[in-house]
Amino acid sequence: MNLIKLQTFITLSKCLNFTEAAEQLYCSQPAVTMQIQSLEKDLGFPLFDRIGKKLFLTNQGEHFKPYAEQIINLVHSSKEHIKQLDNLAFGTLSFGASNFVGVYLLPAVLSNFTKKYSGIKINMNITSSTHLINMLESNKVELLVLSNRIPVDESYFATNTFHQDKLVLVVNSQHHLAQRKECSLEDLVNETMILKPSKSATRDYLEGEFRKHGFDFPKYMEISSLEAIKQSVIHGLGISVVSDLAIKQEIENGLLVEVPVKGVEFQRGVMYVYRRGTHLSPAATEFIALLDQMSLK
Asked: Rounded to two decimals, what is the model's pTM?
């Protein structure tokens, strides 16, 4: 087995078309066929089924794919890490982040990082927590930055919570609570709360916090996008609880108003995650150092 065979398999598993795979790999179609047949011989089981004119991964192929990706990504990472040992004048910092973290928290950190290491290319993948965990498991990224409400296997992953994110109740400037210095939970009984969909980590956290105070919203609206939630509040569709980092500009421009809730505080931790026993690149190590500095402020 060699890396060329593995890369051929990964490429073909994604496009499921020999001609297209050959074009992507800059080789002939017979060469792709030969590499796949050789790999199947090495492994002792078939990786693809052809049904009519369509190609499908076999059950063995489906299970083998993440291992093949992990091997290829690990080789690429090792080359990248070795390049950075001499200096951090060039290289890549590749990591994943959840939507809120990647959009509102990390740009300021990355700005400081690039000022110090201008030659390092930044590759930040913003996607769902489930996809992020899969990316980390397959070595597509070195680390993740996301809410510490996301469950991870701590026997396999190392974690550290470096930041506490404050969430606040917001209304639009015309709302009857906008002029209040604070409100009570009872003041919110007839309001429409705009929330992330169920099974969202933020949704689960907020519902849990409200339940601690014996409160539940009789009326609510579900919206998956944080930006859409903010716009919905601005246009009077309801109220919401969001990170204070996400609404700074809207507050400054008078589009949204923060209203403290008497006796209730919302905070969630933000953590970074990496595989235990892994050798982080010098770039990733320096990036983590900047994240750790946030916890000291």
From this structure: 0.69
